[in-house]
Amino acid sequence: MPNIDRRDFLKLVGAGGVSVGAGFMLREANKDATEYLIPHVVAPEDFSSGLATWYNSVCSMCPAGCGISVRTREGLAKKIEGNPAHPVNQGGLCSLGQAGLQVLYNPDRLTGPLKQTSARGSGSFEQITWDEGLDQLGSRLDLLRAARRGNRVAMLTQGVRGHLAQLFDNFMRQLGSQRLLHYDFNHPHTLYAANQRFFGQDRLPYYDLHNTRMLLSFGADYLTNWISPVHHSLGFGESRQGSSNERGRFIQIEPRMSASGAAADEWLAAKPGTEGILALALANHIVSEGNYAGADRADWAVALTDYTPAKAAEQTGIPQSTITRLADSFIDIQPSLAIGGGAAANHSNGVDTLMAVNVLNYLAGNIGQEGGLLLNPEPTSVVSQQQQASYSTLLEFAEAARQGEIDVLILNGSNPVFTLPQASEFREALASIPLVVSLSSFLDETTAMADLILPSHTYLESWGDDFPEPGMGFPVGAVSQPVVSPLYNTRATGDIILALARQMNVGTALPWENMEECIKDGWRQIYERGDAQTLAQGFDSFWTSVLRAGVWGETAAGDSEFTLDRSVISNIGVQAPEFSGSEEDFPFILHPYLSPNFYDGRGANLPWMQERPDPMTSVVYGSWVEMNPSTAKELDLIEGDLVDIQSLHGTVRAPVYLYPAIMPNVVAMPIGQGHQEFGRYAKDRGVNPIEILSPEIEPITGQLASSATRVNIVPTGRRSKLVKTSGTSRDLGREIVQFADVNGVELSSAGSNSIPITEVTA
Amino acid sequence: MSLFSRFMDGWRKYRKPGYYDEFDYHWTMAIDLDKCTGCQACMTACQAENNIPIVGEEELARGREIQWIRVERYWEGEYPNAKLSFIPIMCQHCDSAPCETVCPVSATYHNQDGLNTQIYNRCIGTRSCAVYCPYEVRYFNYYDHHWDSPLEQQLNPDVTVRGKGVMEKCTFCIQRIREAKDHAKDDGRRRVQDGEVQPACVQTCPSKALVFGDRKDSENEVSVAINDPRKYRVLDELNTDSSVFYLKKVDA
Amino acid sequence: MVAETNNLGYTDIHEDVVRSIVKTGPKYYIALATAGGTTLLCFFFPWFYQLYYGIGAAGMNHPGVWGTYLASFIFWIGLSHSGTLLSCVLHLTNSSWRKAMYRSAEAMTLFSLVVAATYVMVHVGRPWFIHWALPYPNQMELWPNFRSPLMFDVMAITTYITGSTIFIYMGSIPDFAAVRDRTSGWRNTMYTLLSLGWRGTDKEWHRLHWAYTFLAVLIIPLAVSVHSIVSWDFAMSIVPALHQTIFAPYFVVGAIYSGTAGIVTVMFVLRKYMGFERYITKLHFDNLGKLLLVLSLLWTYINAVELFTSWYSGTSEEYEAVGFKLFGFYAPLYWEMILFCAVAPLLMFSTRFRTSFMPMLILSIVINIGMYTERFLIIATSLPRQYLPDAWGVYVPSAVEVSIMVGSFALFTTLFLVFVKIFPSVSMYEVKETMATPKLGSVAPASGSPA
Ligand code: SF4
Ligand code: SF4
Ligand code: SF4
Ligand code: SF4
Ligand code: SF4
Asked: Is the C-alpha dihedral spanning B156, B159, B164, B168 positive or negative?
């Protein structure tokens, strides 16, 4: 028997206990995160173990507004799928939409209110409570409002729609401020303006890709980022191999092949900015060949005299024979449709170019035709559409800030420090604003400059609604509901606004307790405008069915008859584009395009998207500059060589990628990388070509002419490894992708189970 | 049956990778290349559904990506006549799968639904299946993967998280097939109906280029699709007898 | 018969060999410590790191899923070849020059196999489950897949290891007995056990010869099959450049080739450092040199045939594979291999070259460097470039892999150093068989002598 007395025994037991405890805690601390798959000990009431619950909501990753169904298990969101009942996407989702879960569960989310403690941009924040934060902002706002200096408050938000937009309007009005700015880098101002001038409508028409047999796209990358990519992809698939009996033909005109260019049957590169001239040359040929028989034929002939195919061939670089062939098939193959966007719309002549595209649709009789362009009826129930601010408006705002006219700036989701060129000096202008408040969920470049951060929920945690624009030919609305309970000490944007309203003592004008009530109240009004049948079911059951379906559609309005105002015709014409920088010093035109993975950069903090190869180049995790192999040869560059891309307004450095389908005098760069903030996945990765864009604008809309920058390419003599997943993208005669001859192909209807574009009712 | 014919029968089955004379279901994918836009939504959907880790830039630079489905791109011609085609490649669920015969421990085998299954628990990581698979759709876990918290909360509880040293690949979303079968059973139905199973990639495909189903029923959408005159199979000359059919891109 | 051994007595042989076992100088310990230390540092340490981290510690990727581990595996299996195989062949053909060298040659086989088997563990992703590749009844009712060439491999190699072990052991029994009679203490106990009570009766000698010859006959086809089967790990796939009917003979020839070169290396070392100058002579080098020359010509021929058929096929896959091998990323290594394995060995047409020790040593090492390169290239040029060009990649070995490769040579050396202290590394009784009948007075004790 060893000599252990009672005290030793107790000591040993004590020590042993502590060690076991410590060991256990050490083990727990080291546990793999995946061991916490089911973290709830006390289950929330709405989940039953092992059973998935689906919630319908709305994707907020881009402005298209696709409907989603989120699969949840044990109170956690597991998978986002397309809502098959939503007419915009009919079950489909794009890559970015799929990755929405990584917004929700992003490790770099802001978890609660923060206050900047030292100089702005220093990145030192301290945690505060919501009461403190709301008080700090609310009292300031209240003072300004009371002093009738509400206009010294500005709100800069990413484009929002539906009742949240209405709430913002209302709030700013109560405050007495006209400075509510919705800003998205990619907003198609020129498209709105051209359509406004041509059709007299502030809405976008519905482009019926589903039924078209011939699509002529002037620069619009409709499959990746133009207006509603999932809907267009559906239309593309349907037109290609749908139930109809003729395979749709797709032609893409752009200086650098986009995904839509790859999908097209024919890809043509017109000189950048001359797309409108090309369109008018087609129009000229249509009219001169007698293929247009409208009453205003003579007017057109006059308006188009300058745009002969011969002349246009010279200006655009597209052979005359191609121009006449395109013009003929645009008439012969019916229904046909011309669309314009992307780089073509981002030149100094953007509006005119898109007008020219409308001319083609007009002359070919595509307006109001199935398979053409359908004018959306005035929505009866859709709540306020946002008024997007253009680049010029933001410059004006920055100037006002510099003049000391702004006391408070409230930022919501918008990240202008990243999406505006350095030449705008926006970041510098922020310094003149005494109080900058951000409602972002992430510490993006602009939020990093804020004094106060009141982080909002992500879209998967909040109530909201959306009315996609353009409509589907009939008004559509969808409710976005929280699919999980909030992860952190954040609040819904709407709730923050409502709380501020209460602080400012304007609560009576914004009487809702929270956003859910506000939405419900809004939908009660929609319900009350409904037909007898809708009213008969009672609001509660209407509301439940809307939530269950996730989407609601109004009865289609009758086609509005369209007549063209003759004054439009005489104003048709496209000037040569203007570029910043001389051709001698800056021999290349920079073609910046939205990355298919990151949209305007907002997807860069999602690890799935960082690791998704760029579809065209297979590059991951970085930036690159695309150039024609012949150009590279001239400059003695090979893939991976680092070059400086210099414009009049700055320089960025990126490795070269030899891109087989880009004009020799054009270099292209994807937008989306190059974040200086925005979390661990985005930060310090690649470069942001927006930085070096010249502040050239399209004069009618004030939109940034983002394709109008000339650059010089300066080899640095250094190399970097371009990380890509692709080995050799040539099939070496192995027939991996096989081709069928278009003649003799029977169309398959497999997969064309998409719902027809008719009304959907909850 | 005589002893000899029993032996010969056994031998024939032994030689046939799947062992089966007839499958219960014959799950099949049809991919219309004339519709595929190369958008890669299918890749993200698959990654989300099947707990596919991200490996990080450094590992990607070393060629360690894990993509159960990948969209390959092939250029043809030179500027200005350059053309680009996309082709999604996932496990082709070959009925005569070279990967199955080579696995020394039968960690990959054919099941009675015509699926090429992968048993992670059984795999010892020889990687020979990846060598033998001509489609190169098998991806190896070169180390234990990590999810930055709270990203792991997204992980699909119906799908295993794979540890280091095991091989993985597209399963045709077998968890969804199982679920559909369970539902069919619960409903007292005998068979899963057409359209009831949609793998994650098929569900999301914006242009509806992907069709999935049981080809045993000739009425099913996928059966119609694979009888299209445009149908072909990639590397068909290798006699893998794959279950993924492609519809040729139309050259206009 | 053999000129240089003529002036030796039986006792000299015993003394030399037993001395090599019993007398251990500081040089030996230094060598053992160096080899053992290197094994730990370069082989086991990186391997344990890899076990902890995952196979990602090596350079393998997608689609280059195999790399140096498998190349080393084939290399060691190949090296194992000439020992036992050559010994058997020479035994059956009664080539008496074999007798001085075959013991160490067989040991080489054994240890190469041990290193190769260890490489299997290093190669697989989850070596802790490696036993699942063995057919044993278990509660999970699981069984390995006998259709897999890898399983053929497991079977073949296990059989070969077993056969070789028995073969070398059986051949050593009389020598164990001889050592037993000349040692005391723990060595005596050990050799008593090892010699299985050998007394050297006629009956025992007769049975030994009979069984030895029987095993020799058995092992020859086994050795050939082992490397054929190793080749099938590759050839049974449908990877362009691997899916080749010529692979089995190619691997067998390659194996014997590198194995024979290995023997030359080992013999040089034994001769020089164990003081066996009198037993391992120019004759051995001359004969082995002739054999090596023939093998090198065969090897060159097969390589040429392989290239020709690939080129002739005209398919993009084979064509690209050949092109990549000859002119691609690893082309310098390819031409190094050709220089080392096809060109340099032509020197052996010269008798003077064959009978010069140092040049033969250098050549034998050069050949094996070339043969290692060959194995590496088989993997590194084929897997990363298969049917789908978009999936192509490049495989480059990592530091861990290189270290383990270096360490495996140290492991081999360590094992060999231990061997020479346990086994009589020259077969005493067989050497004696080649000698002139001894004069009276120098008769060795009966137990160790031929009947
Ligand atoms: S297009 Fe993609 S990102 Fe945009 S709303 Fe639809 S799914 Fe979301
Ligand atoms: S989601 Fe569909 S269209 Fe997009 S890449 Fe995949 S298969 Fe092609
Ligand atoms: S595609 Fe590859 S992994 Fe899939 S079944 Fe065929 S051989 Fe096996
Ligand atoms: S890696 Fe796994 S599945 Fe593949 S062959 Fe080896 S043990 Fe089988
Ligand atoms: S079927 Fe499922 S596992 Fe296979 S690629 Fe599609 S989503 Fe991934």
From this structure: negative
